[in-house]
Amino acid sequence: MNTFIKTAAFTRTATLTATLAVAMALSACQTTTLSPVIQRADSTYETTGISDTKAKAQQNALDSAKKNCGSRQVIIVDDEAKYNGILGERTGRVIGQIGGVLGGVLGTGSPDLSRNDDYEYKINFRCQ
């Protein structure tokens, strides 16, 4: 009986370790989100970064541009930020803050109304 308990505990530990390893490997694959880059006729390029915050969307677009330009410098010709959330940008922030306060008081945490595609940041750029 004692051997059975040790074997079951080892199997559980091995299963948990394997599950954690797979989860970490999959999450590592999702950290870099590069957007496709389109070349335009006037020797400029276009890409769009998408994320749950404006800053992350901008960084995603700039990372794609930097990868495209390689060692050359990225020169932004034109940019446009767009919010695509289900609520207005200001309304979503207010509801998130109220939910955070209520969640802190009640101990339930704050609701997350954002999606990973709420913000788009489109840039036209050239490499120099």
Shape: flat
Largest sheet: 4 strands, antiparallel
- By DSSP (H or I, 4+ residues per run), the number of helices equals 3
Beta content? 15-25%
Helix content: 40-55%
- Poorly predicted regions: 18-31
Q: How many β strands by DSSP? A: 4
Give the strand line-up of the largest sheet.
Answer: 1-2-4-3
pLDDT averaged residue by residue: 74
Task: From the alpha carbons, calculate the radius of gyration and give it in angstroms.
Answer: 22 Å
Q: State the distance separating the first and last CA atoms.
A: 72 Å
Structural class: alpha+beta
Following the backbone from N to C, one meets helices and strands in this order, namely HEEHEHE
- Indicate how many domains the architecture comprises: 2
